[in-house]
């Protein structure tokens, strides 16, 4: 073979290098194309798998759509479905709560003298009993205001200064109802003052408000994990005042138990979101120790609507208490903080304590007392024993069981 010149050898080497580079570039390009094809395949298979999973999820959760619902919409609905919370049982949180109830309260006569001298003195004798309960409630049978004039034609009208709320709080009372036949004794301006002063003193009221929605709304509080709802209403309003005193749409007033449908609807609404529902109702006939047919009827309807505890006042006498099915009823708590000293019956009083776990009534107890100088004072010894026996005897005309 003839020898190559240096120039020819250089050109041959360059041609060889170009050939190697072309082979390397070709191999690299092939690798890139294979990789891209593999990634594309994964993407396509993932998309189809996602569509299948979305359809499966939609079917599993029971999500349905209108005609033309896209796969994306179905996927969104399936992934945003919130699992339903397990409903609470009849026992709620499972912890027992003690509720205490007292009867009618106003601040007239000798009680007003005590209030003016020292608000804390009004409930002082009974305060330890009330404070031992998880929640204590009374019927506030007075307007709280400096303004207004007595309602024409009413024989008895009651009014108190704002320090009344100081007395209630100092005495261990946590909430009161204003749904009664004295709540608007000094006119609507004074009634609105009652609501305003209660708000100023951070004292909850039920059974009255600036409109029907507020008047029929319950006071809601959670105690030991138990959701307690308390409503107030009155079945005692002077016949000529029922219309003007009853709360309405945009109209202040009290919750009237004459409007049975509205009241039971409020109870049903509270039942849905509460473990224990209480209704404090002003009803009955004055000076009667046995409940009336009207009391029987409204109590039955309240329990049917979902009330667990129904307590009442108005007769100025104690009335019987006991169980009605799974619910508890006390038809009459009598006077509590009261100026009248004119009979044994009008000064016979006490505190009702009910222990409840959700909807279950665990037990109840009567703490007998006597109104002395306007204030309820617990009894002891033989006086207490006699008072307890008398209170238990009132059940005989109630159709309630022990």
Overview of this structure, please?
Helices cover 38% and strands 24% of the residues. The chain contains 12 helices and 18 strands. α1 packs across α2. The chain is an alpha/beta fold and 402 residues long. The strands form 4 sheets. Strands 1, 2, 5, 6, 15, 16, 17 and 18 form an 8-stranded mixed sheet that branches. The chain has 2 domains: 6-80; 97-397, Metallo-dependent phosphatases (Purple Acid Phosphatase, chain A, domain 2, 4-Layer Sandwich).
Q: Can you give the helix content as a percent range?
A: 25-40%
The total number of structural domains is: 2
Q: Might you state the CATH topology name of the largest domain?
A: Purple Acid Phosphatase, chain A, domain 2
Q: Low-confidence stretches at least 5 residues in length (pLDDT < 50)?
A: 39-80
Q: Encode the helix/strand succession as letters.
A: HHEHHEEEHEHEEHEEHEHEHEEEEHEEEH
CATH class of the largest domain: Alpha Beta
What's the number of helices?
12
Radius of gyration: 37 Å
Q: CATH superfamily name of the largest domain?
A: Metallo-dependent phosphatases
What is the molecular shape?
elongated
Mean pLDDT: 87
Largest sheet, described in full?
A: 8 strands, mixed
CATH architecture of the largest domain: 4-Layer Sandwich
Distance between the termini: 131 Å
Sheet-strand content, in percent, reads 15-25%
Count the strands? 18
- Oligomerization: single chain
Structural class determined from secondary elements = alpha/beta
């Amino acid at each position: 073979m003839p020898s190559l010149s240096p120039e020819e050898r250089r050109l041959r080497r360059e041609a060889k290098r170009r050939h190697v580079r072309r082979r390397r570039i070709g191999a690299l390009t092939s690798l890139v194309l294979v990789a891209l094809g593999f990634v594309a395949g994964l993407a396509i298979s993932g998309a189809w798998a996602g569509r299948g999973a979305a359809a499966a999820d939609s079917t599993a959760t029971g999500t349905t759509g209108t005609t033309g619902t896209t796969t994306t919409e179905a996927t969104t609905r399936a992934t945003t479905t919130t699992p339903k919370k397990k409903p609470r049982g009849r026992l709620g949180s499972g912890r027992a709560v003690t509720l205490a109830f007292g009867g009618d309260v106003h601040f007239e006569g000798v009680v007003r003298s005590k209030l003016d001298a020292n608000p804390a003195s009004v409930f002082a004798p009974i305060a330890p009993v009330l404070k031992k309960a998880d929640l204590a409630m009374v019927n506030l049978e007075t307007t709280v205001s400096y303004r207004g004039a007595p309602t024409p034609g009413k024989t008895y009208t009651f009014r108190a200064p704002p320090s009344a709320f100081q007395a209630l709080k100092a005495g261990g009372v946590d909430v009161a109802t204003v749904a009664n036949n004295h709540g608007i004794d000094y006119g609507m301006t004074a009634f609105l003052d009652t609501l305003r002063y209660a708000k100023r003193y951070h004292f909850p009221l039920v059974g009255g408000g600036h409109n029907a929605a507020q008047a029929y709304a319950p006071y809601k509080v959670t105690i030991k994990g138990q959701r307690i709802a308390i409503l107030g209403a009155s079945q005692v309003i002077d016949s000529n005042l029922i219309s003007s005193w009853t709360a309405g749409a945009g109209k202040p007033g009290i919750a009237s138990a004459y409007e049975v449908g509205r009241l039971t609807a409020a109870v049903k609404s509270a039942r849905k979101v509460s473990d224990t529902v209480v209704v404090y109702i002003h009803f009955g006939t004055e000076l009667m120790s046995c409940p009336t047919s009207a009391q029987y009827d409204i109590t039955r309807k309240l329990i049917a609507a979902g009330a667990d505890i129904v307590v009442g006042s108005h007769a100025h006498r104690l009335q019987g208490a006991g169980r009605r099915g799974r619910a508890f009823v006390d038809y009459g708590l009598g006077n509590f903080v009261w100026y009248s000293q004119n009979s044994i019956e009008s000064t016979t009083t006490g505190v009702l304590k009910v222990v409840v776990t959700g909807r279950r009534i665990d037990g109840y107890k009567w703490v007998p007392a006597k109104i002395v100088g306007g204030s309820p004072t617990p009894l002891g010894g033989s006086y207490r024993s006699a008072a307890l026996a008398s209170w238990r005897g009132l059940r005989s005309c109630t159709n309630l069981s022990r």
